[in-house]
Design goal:
The complex is a heterodimer of chains A (111) and B (121).
Chain A (H helix, E strand, L loop, with lengths): L3 E3 L2 E4 L4 E8 L11 E5 L6 E5 L3 E2 L7 E6 L2 E7 L7 E9 L4 E4 L3 E5 L1
Chain B lengths: L2 E4 L3 E3 L5 E8 L7 E7 L5 E8 L4 E4 L8 E5 L4 E6 L8 E11 L2 E7 L3 E5 L2
Parallel strand pairs in B: 2-11
Antiparallel strand pairs in B: 1-3, 3-8, 4-5, 4-9, 5-6, 7-8, 9-10, 9-11
The chains are: A mainly beta (111), B mainly beta (121).
Chain lengths: 111, 121
Amino acid sequence: QTVVTQEPSLTVSPGGTVTLTCASSTGAVTSGYYPNWFQQKPGQAPRALIYSTSNKHSWTPARFSGSLLGGKAALTLSGVQPEDEAEYYCLLYYGGAQLGVFGTGTKVTVL
Amino acid sequence: EVQLVQSGAEVKKPGESLKISCKGSGYSFTSYWIGWVRQMPGKGLEWMGIIYPGDSDTRYSPSFQGQVTISADKSISTAYLQWSSLKASDTAMYYCVRHYYDSSGAAVDYWGQGTLVTVSS
């Protein structure tokens, strides 16, 4: 069974920068896994931020960016705002984008 | 405006059946996949499966194959997730999502508001 692993928690100061990563148990993450990133705040449905590694949706704030870093997918938050405090999930696709596997989630605290 | 509107919360007993729905609007319902995502209380997101309403092609995650049935009625732009015999462990929030993939990549972009399913005797 494929497992997608993220850091359990990260803390960042307002205005700072933080990078979250997403690793696959099958090996290095490449663009062919079409990494997606989502933000979920308590009591809310998740919201899409990034798709296909680094593409932003029309509503994604400019301070969010996606990339590949050291064999993992990465989400970088630059100039962090208090409202960025949330749980973040990555999604990797397997089997020709027909099967998705979500990451374990990273809780980002802004302190 | 793209919207996915899900049916309301359900409270059921173990062994009962259930079908929840997700109605799409604001886009061509038959041109995008609809997926279902489970979130158990206090836990992370789990991909359950997807359906292409255009031809009802359905793909299940191995963890959910045989446990649930995903279907769609394109005439009313609605996708469904159903159980024939609920268990207490099915208690969770269920989200529908719009999924697509093409030459530019793959994405989940829009989410429904979620349907809370509680299974308790």
